[in-house]
Design goal:
The chain is an alpha+beta fold. The protein has six helices and eight strands, in the order H-H-H-E-H-E-E-E-E-E-E-H-H-E.
């Protein structure tokens, strides 16, 4: 035993270090080679499903392209069936455009008037000297009755579903909280303001709210005014069809 120890001690230290380094290097090489096989096998196993998925998606894309072309050909065939088809299609587009305008979904430009309605500046006038939702509703109603085609309040388009309500110190129009002064814009015939002046209810509004309670009211007749499109939702959540009063055949 002592002879073996003596022989080990006789070996130079650099040889021991080199042998240890070679042993570690051989271990690392063996570990890498053992791991290389599963990695290659895993890559090979996964490639086939990926290729199949890509081919399936490509086939679906080609089928969709063919369907699009088929539908385009059908549309072209329907449009070319006769001169009446193009006229019917144009009529449908015109009706759709009128429906969108009626629903307020399209911004409009044209001749009209702009009102500016604001609270009274008289001291100690009380709540009656503040512009209320009722004041705005009256003015909008008079504009409709006078022949207005589009109306907005502070750039909020007024439609058949618009509610004008008092909320605290502001007025709720659609889903927007508005504060005075209020700008009421209307597109209509060039004699829209004279029609309002001829209305008894409009004159009563001016007498009671403007002259008596001191509300500020200014009006401008313009050749071009802009009424923006309705920016809210048009989906009806609560409602049901009303039965027609006329007898059905």
């Amino acid at each position: 035993m002592s002879a073996l120890v003596a022989r080990i001690r006789a070996i130079p230290s650099w040889q021991i270090t080199l042998a240890a380094a070679l042993l570690v290097l051989g271990f690392l090489i063996a570990a890498q080679l053992s791991a290389e096989g599963p990695r290659v096998r895993y890559t090979t196993q996964e490639r086939s499903p990926l290729v199949e998925s890509a081919q399936s998606l490509q086939s679906q894309q080609e089928a969709l392209k063919a369907r699009i072309l088929q539908l385009r050909n059908q549309i072209g065939a329907l449009e070319s069936q006769g001169p009446g088809s193009a006229d019917s299609l144009k009529t449908l587009y015109d009706r759709l455009e009128k429906a969108r305008i009626g629903a307020g979904l399209i911004g409009l430009t044209g001749p009209g008037i702009v009102f500016r309605l604001e609270d009274s500046s008289q001291p100690g006038a009380g709540s009656d000297a503040l512009v209320s939702a009722q004041d705005l509703r009256v003015l909008v109603q008079e504009l409709w009755l006078g022949g207005a085609e589009a109306v907005s309040i502070n750039d909020e388009r007024v439609t058949v579903s618009t509610a004008v309500l008092d909320i605290g110190g502001s007025v709720l129009v659609n889903s927007a909280y508005l504060a005075p002064p209020y700008k009421i814009t209307a597109i209509g015939p060039r004699d829209l303001y004279p029609r309002l002046q001829a209305s008894v209810s409009f004159r009563e509004f001016v007498t009671d709210r403007v002259e008596h309670h001191g509300l500020g009211l200014a009006v401008a007749q313009l050749d071009v005014v802009d009424v923006p499109a309705f920016a809210g939702t048009v989906a009806i959540r609560f409602g049901q069809p009303v039965a027609s009063a006329s007898p059905q055949p």
